[in-house]
Structure formats: structure tokens, C-alpha cells
């Protein structure tokens, strides 16, 4: 993997890093508000059940992965507490270098250290790059959902 041949630094996100994570996250969730995400990430990093790992290249944050421990039902899971990959994002010019895999591995190891027996995630059905990444990382598809809504 090229990701282990370029000088990257991986670290835990701290409250002071929330704005940088939010700047990446709005590229992932285009309808999201930067300030709202910043506040959410500032809150998440202070909790026991969430962690955000980041990757830096030349002191610039280029990627992040957010993992949570979900205590509620998780589609396809058979255990109570499940590590859940909530998001992973890598700047376009750094993709296909193994960075997302490293971040996902950090997340999975963290979830395992918290006692989780399973690691889950989701993505949009039409996001073929994300589906491929999940499969490459060893995820098995557990379900496909179609959500419906009707105005009254």
C-alpha cells in the first residue's frame, strides 16, 4: 500500500480539531452545516462511546473516521454493543492509498477494546466506491433498505 510509504501522521481528534473535521465532513455530507457539524464533533470527542481518528499530510488534515459504540439495534447484528463506523472520508487526491483502511482498522480495534464483538457500518446504495471499500475491508452486506415517505 502506498499509504505506508508517504509521510502521514495519524492521531485522535481533540475538541480543538473539530472545525477541521467539520471542513472535511461537509464534503461527505454536502447538505450539512459546517458550524453544526463542528459543535457535534466537539461534543462527540468528549464522550466515552465515540472516537474520531484523523490523518495528516504535511500538517494538513486529509482524512477522518468516526466510530461509535451503538447500544441500540443494529441491522444484521447479533450482539448488544456494536462498534459502528459512522463515517470515513479521505480527500480525493489521497484516495486509494490505504488511508481509509488504516483509519477503519483503528476504529475497529478501538471498538474491540471497548468489548464489541461486531463492527458495522452503512452507506448509500448508490455509493459504489463506499460499497467497494466496505467489501474490501471485509464487511459482509447484511441488508438493503429502501425508505419511503408520503405527504398527507
Automatic annotation (TrEMBL):
- Keywords noted in UniProt: Acyltransferase, Antibiotic resistance, Transferase
Q: Which Pfam families match?
A: Acetyltransf_1
GO BP: any one term: response to antibiotic
Q: What is its EC number?
A: 2.3.1.82
Enzymatic reactions:
kanamycin B + acetyl-CoA = N(6')-acetylkanamycin B + CoA + H(+)
Q: Which CDD domains match?
A: NAT_SF (cd04301)
Q: Name one GO molecular function term.
A: aminoglycoside 6'-N-acetyltransferase activity
- Report domain N-acetyltransferase positions: 8-152
Record InterPro entries: Acyl_CoA_acyltransferase, Aminoglycoside_N6-AcTrfrase, Bact_Acetyltransf, GNAT_dom
Complexes and interactors: Homodimer.
Q: What is this protein called?
A: Aminoglycoside N(6')-acetyltransferase type 1
The beginning of the lineage is: Bacteria, Bacillati, Bacillota, Clostridia, Eubacteriales
